[in-house]
């Protein structure tokens, strides 16, 4: 059996806020906000200007519990407590470098019973002990270290009678440490049991003043200082102080999500509609506490998972199912200061291939309930289009500011035009103007503002292939024309001086409007640029007939030759870029590559090939380079068939694709209302837009306002169909309704909607084509009261006609239609109740009219409930609720009894959450324990062995995966195009997007060596004793070391290391460092 190897990486990190707290991690007067997004911990410092991100760390397992405690006295700093999903306890502090350092770590796993029904919960008592509920009927007591050098005692367990524990809380009642256990005694009935914790005897005993309360408690809130508590249900808030009578107040019937103390007199509650409610405490004349309830009529926000008061009426509003916000509240309302976009949970996604950019975009159903959002995800830099117009034949764009006005010079192959911009509120217009002496019949190869004369007068200049035209920049009056007998090949403006190249010469227009030679060589010049090396000006030159590039000092004429390694490929353009690390020479080659050299190395090595240079495979045609400054940072824009931004920061070279078709020319353009605005010319259009932020993932969002669960794309209409649900408020009751929505995903607009029957839930949808007519099949289920599983459902076929949805076929079935996929382009494989059913769809003539019919071809039973169905060829992959995956074969020539045959399955019991084909013999699945499992068929052995699927690869990803689909949002990779076509993307509960692909064994052998060395040297709050411990597969029954899958998050960190560290890792791995970098960069480019 041949081993198969895989590479897994993060395409986009988690965005849902799962935990958050405010702590004093450094000085007593410095506050920090700690945010946990599943596996990612972010630490923000609270400043007068907002939140400053100072630290980020990713854990291998999801963080299940977060808390804090004071390390020593009252004024000491806080320590942070993390408990991960594999029950690793980590205690950390913020050091002087503003990084989290490890104080204490221990594995507290027992595996004594079933894991806690509602997940891990815990509480800190007296800054000395941590109580954790990890397993049903058990409380683990963990002594906490008070100083870094003092190790605590060993943890121990105490038994409790309660199960289904919702939360643990610490109270100070009658000067005793009391533990309140909030637990569920039957469905939706939650109560509180109080225990007294004796530190000396290390025991839990029932509190002798146990308060009998049979009413359900939805929310239990310890009061500040733990002296008293609130107990809240849907309509009553009660306050139980330590030493006085109970106070209560009625409120609206609401479902509360979380709470936040604004101060000792005000408690803010938030509900599942994103609304806020205020409870105030006031002392009356009898020294009794009275409660008052105020529903705050602020705007509805997202459903919160955590709300924290920061300072000065500013709150952090964190959400798992929608965007998170930084808000400020006052008497007038709620002001959103900052928004943190959230993709989670990702419920469905599909890859849409964009022919213009030659890559896939992801169309996703995101968020929950009324927060439902449709998101279009694309890789690379997005240009937000302000306006565009069809304009063909553009070769160059130039910008000039003259007389407090902005001008745009557009050059064509056979002429040039000048446009004056008129900027008004929400309006931008360009008017073509005529300038006397401006050559409108020739192509302009350079234009802009220069300084001439002793007074350094500002002049506007136009350069064509044979002449230079000079104008007064204020009045636009013609001053002078300089004509040449020699052809002008290139021209540029540097330091407000005009330079031109003619054959083998570079000349400058001096202050007296005379042409002066700067350089003359032996070969014709193909490209040149001018920059600074320290305080001295240098020229970078490429040649047509020579494979050399020269760096020339303009003062002394010193040369340095760099020999091009690929023979006669010429340099089409060249740029010199300066940053804090030094100077770099960037060359755009005629074959679509970009070469990046560090200037210091060029100056040190004369006439030799520098060893440390970078070759970037950008496009398939010649590269034109353009330097842009965006948000204060310099970038190189590579203009070609695949436009790309190149950044050089801290010695690292990064590329970001631009979401635009082939860019011919680009120029910055000042606009009053937009920073980083640009004018972009493509082959077909001229676009005016702006770049807000340079990021690897670009997102467009459409708020649907309802829960969206499934999506399918119409390839003929550029439209998509959504399955959605919402809660409607009727006079007598709240009703959940489901509907099918038609949207234009290019415009991100809803065009039509069709509501389903009462109690009918839409579960699955698939596109089919019959006689070149596109249709959509929808599977539903009727959720009737008192039914454990739906006993009936429908199959609907709809068609788009004149922008509307029309039902053309419906069929009743016995059970829920959980999933469906097309099979062999004429069949549908469906999971209905506990069966796998194959239908043939066809168009027939009935009474002289065309009708669509579904005819059952065969069926067979699945193990429990087939929740997911995928097809490839005649194979059908089924993901079962509890019985892992099974593979079926369909024989379209067989009869109804034997056309479906189960050919193999996994015998291990696991809760499957998503599935996908790698190929016909290899299958990808994920389970509810955040593991990814890959299976392949056994081609050898007896019949029983061939029937059993082989688990050939597995790894823990720390994310519960909801959906998988084939595709890649990166541009097509020329070297690894075959590998890239097999890439699989998956989306998770917390907004995580990952990618996985099969890789050759020789690449795996290199990367696994690098990964192991990086893991062995990993120290801090995340460390690895042995590589086998990294991301072990975990569930309730077993632990398995990850196998045959490279963790991209680890090996990709190699590129962020210092040069010395890279050399060390390469030496220990026994692999050349350049080979390592090249392989990792190629792996990254498959997905980004």
Second rung of CATH, namely the architecture of the domain at 759-955? 7 Propeller
Biggest β-sheet: count, sense, barrel? 5 strands, mixed
Strand order of the largest sheet: 82-83-84-1-87
**Mean model confidence by pLDDT:** 87
Number of helices: 7
Helical content band: under 10%
How much beta, percentage-wise?
over 45%
Q: How far do the termini sit from each other? A: 33 Å
Rg, alpha carbons? 33 Å
The CATH top-level class label of the domain at 759-955: Mainly Beta
CATH topology description of the domain at 759-955:
Methylamine Dehydrogenase, Chain H
CATH superfamily of the domain at 759-955: YVTN repeat-like/Quinoprotein amine dehydrogenase
Domain RSE1/DDB1/CPSF1 first beta-propeller: 16-340
GO molecular function: nucleic acid binding
Organism: Entamoeba histolytica (strain ATCC 30459 / HM-1:IMSS / ABRM)
InterPro entries: Beta-prop_RSE1/DDB1/CPSF1_1st (IPR018846), Beta-prop_RSE1/DDB1/CPSF1_2nd (IPR058543), RSE1/DDB1/CFT1 (IPR050358), RSE1/DDB1/CPSF1_C (IPR004871), WD40/YVTN_repeat-like_dom_sf (IPR015943), WD40_repeat_dom_sf (IPR036322)
Task: Walk me through the structure.
The structure is a single chain. By secondary structure, the chain is mainly beta. Among the domains are: 15-103; 107-211; 523-658, YVTN repeat-like/Quinoprotein amine dehydrogenase (Methylamine Dehydrogenase, Chain H), CATH 2.130.10; 759-955, Methylamine Dehydrogenase, Chain H (7 Propeller); 998-1087, Orthogonal Bundle (DNA polymerase, domain 1). 5% of the residues lie in helices and 56% in strands. The chain is built from seven helices and 87 strands. The strands form 22 sheets. A five-stranded mixed sheet has the order 82-83-84-1-87. A hairpin with a 3-residue loop joins strand 70 (817-823) and strand 71 (827-832). It is globular. The model has no long low-confidence stretch (mean pLDDT 87).
């Amino acid at each position: 059996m041949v081993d198969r190897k895989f590479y897994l990486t993060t395409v986009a990190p988690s965005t849902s806020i799962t935990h958050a707290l405010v702590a004093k991690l450094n000085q007593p007067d410095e506050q920090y906000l700690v945010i946990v997004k599943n596996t990612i911990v972010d630490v923000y410092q609270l400043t007068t200007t907002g939140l400053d991100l100072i630290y980020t760390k990713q854990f291998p397992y999801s963080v299940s519990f977060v808390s804090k405690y004071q390390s020593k006295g009252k004024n000491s700093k806080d320590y942070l407590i993390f408990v991960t999903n594999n029950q690793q306890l980590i205690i950390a502090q913020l050091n002087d470098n503003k990084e989290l350092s490890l104080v204490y770590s221990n594995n507290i796993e027992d595996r004594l019973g079933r894991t806690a029904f509602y997940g891990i919960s815990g509480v800190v008592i007296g800054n000395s002990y941590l109580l954790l509920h990890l397993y049903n009927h058990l409380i683990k007591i963990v002594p906490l270290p008070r100083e870094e050098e003092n190790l605590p005692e060993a943890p121990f367990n105490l038994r409790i009678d309660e199960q289904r524990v919702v939360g643990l809380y610490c109270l100070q009642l009658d000067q005793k440490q009391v533990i309140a256990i909030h637990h569920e005694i039957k469905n939706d009935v939650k109560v509180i049991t109080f225990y007294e914790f004796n530190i000396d005897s290390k025991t839990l005993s029932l509190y002798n003043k146990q308060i009998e309360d049979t009413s359900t408690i939805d929310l239990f809130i310890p009061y500040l200082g733990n002296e008293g508590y609130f107990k809240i249900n849907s309509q009553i808030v009660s306050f139980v102080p330590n030493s006085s009578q109970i106070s209560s107040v009625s409120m609206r019937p609401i479902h509360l999500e979380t709470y936040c103390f604004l101060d000792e007199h005000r408690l803010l509650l938030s509900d599942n509609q994103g609304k806020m409610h205020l409870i105030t405490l006031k002392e009356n004349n009898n020294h009794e506490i009275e409660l008052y309830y105020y529903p705050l009529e602020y705007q509805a926000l997202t459903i919160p998972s955590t709300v924290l008061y920061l300072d000065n009426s500013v709150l952090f509003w964190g959400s798992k199912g929608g965007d998170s916000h930084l808000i400020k509240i006052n008497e007038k309302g709620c002001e959103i200061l900052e928004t943190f976009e959230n993709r989670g949970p990702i419920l469905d996604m599909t890859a849409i291939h964009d022919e213009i950019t030659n890559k896939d975009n992801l169309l996703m159903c995101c968020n929950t309930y009324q927060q439902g959002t449709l998101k279009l995800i694309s890789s690379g830099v997005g240009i937000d289009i302000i306006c565009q117009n069809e304009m063909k034949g553009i070769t160059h764009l130039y910008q000039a500011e003259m007389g407090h006005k902005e001008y745009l010079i557009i050059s064509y192959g056979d002429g040039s035009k000048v446009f004056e911009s008129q900027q008004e509120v929400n309006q931008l217009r360009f008017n073509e103007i005529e300038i006397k002496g401006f050559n409108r019949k020739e192509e302009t190869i350079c234009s802009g503002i220069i300084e001439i004369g002793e007074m350094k007068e500002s002049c506007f200049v136009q350069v064509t292939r044979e002449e230079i035209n000079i104008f007064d920049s204020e009045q636009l009056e013609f001053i002078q024309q300089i004509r040449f007998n020699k052809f002008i090949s290139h021209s540029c403006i540097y330091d407000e001086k005009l330079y031109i190249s003619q054959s083998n010469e570079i000349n400058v227009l001096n202050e007296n409007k005379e042409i002066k030679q700067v350089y003359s060589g032996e070969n014709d010049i193909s490209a040149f640029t001018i920059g600074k090396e320290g305080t001295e000006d240098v020229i970078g030159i490429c040649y047509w007939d020579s494979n050399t590039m020269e760096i020339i000092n303009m003062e002394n004429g010193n040369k340095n030759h760099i020999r091009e390694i690929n023979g006669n490929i010429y340099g089409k353009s060249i740029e010199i870029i300066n940053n804090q690390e030094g100077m770099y020479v960037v060359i755009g080659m005629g074959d679509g590559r970009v070469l990046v050299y560090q200037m210091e190395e060029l100056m040190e090595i004369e006439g030799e090939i520098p060893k440390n240079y970078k070759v970037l495979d950008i496009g398939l045609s010649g590269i034109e380079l353009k330097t842009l400054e965006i948000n204060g940072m310099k970038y190189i824009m590579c203009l070609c068939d695949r436009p790309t931004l190149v950044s050089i920061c801290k010695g690292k070279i990064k590329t970001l694709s631009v979401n635009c078709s082939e860019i011919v020319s680009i120029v910055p353009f000042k606009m009053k209302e937009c920073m980083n605005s640009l004018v972009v010319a493509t082959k077909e259009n001229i676009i005016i837009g702006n770049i807000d932020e340079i990021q690897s993932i670009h997102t467009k969002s459409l708020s649907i306002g309802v829960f969206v669960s499934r999506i399918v794309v119409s390839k003929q209409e550029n439209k998509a169909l959504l399955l959605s649900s919402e809660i409607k408020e009727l006079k007598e009751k709240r009703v959940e309704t489901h509907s099918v929505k038609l949207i234009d995903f290019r415009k991100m607009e809803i065009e039509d909607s069709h509501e389903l029957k009462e109690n009918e839930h839409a579960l699955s949808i698939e596109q089919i084509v019959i006689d070149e007519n596109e249709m959509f099949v929808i599977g539903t289920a009727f959720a009737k009261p008192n039914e454990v599983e739906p006993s009936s459902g429908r199959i609907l076929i709809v068609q788009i006609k004149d922008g509307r949805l029309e039902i053309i076929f419906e069929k009743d079935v016995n059970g829920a239609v959980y999933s469906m996929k097309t099979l062999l382009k004429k069949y549908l494989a469906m999971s209905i109740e506990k069966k796998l059913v194959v239908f043939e769809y066809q168009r027939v003539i009935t009474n002289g009219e065309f009708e669509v019919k579904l005819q059952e071809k065969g069926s067979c039973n699945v193990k429990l409930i087939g929740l997911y169905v995928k097809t490839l060829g005649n194979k059908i992959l089924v993901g079962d609720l509890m019985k892992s995956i099974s593979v079926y074969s369909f024989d379209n020539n067989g009869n109804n009894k034997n056309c479906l045959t189960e050919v193999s399955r996994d015998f291990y019991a696991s809760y499957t959450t998503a599935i996908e084909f790698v190929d016909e013999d290899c299958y990808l699945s994920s389970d509810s324990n955040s593991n990814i499992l890959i299976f392949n068929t056994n081609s050898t052995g007896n019949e029983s062995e061939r029937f059993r699927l082989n688990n050939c690869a597995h790894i823990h990803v720390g994310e519960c995966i909801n959906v998988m689909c084939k595709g890649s949002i990166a541009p097509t990779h020329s070297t690894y195009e075959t590998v890239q076509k097999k890439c699989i993307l998956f989306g998770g509960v917390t907004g995580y997007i990952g990618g996985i692909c099969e890789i050759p064994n020789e690449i795996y052998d290199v990367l696994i060596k690098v990964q192991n060395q990086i893991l062995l040297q990993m120290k801090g709050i995340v460390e690895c004793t042995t590589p086998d411990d990294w991301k072990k597969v975990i569930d309730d029954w077993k632990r398995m070391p990850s196998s045959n899958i490279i963790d991209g998050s680890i090996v990709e960190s190699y590129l962020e290391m210092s040069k010395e560290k890279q050399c060390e890792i390469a030496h220990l791995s026994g692999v050349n460092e350049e080979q390592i970098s090249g392989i990792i960069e190629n792996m990254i480019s498959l997905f980004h």
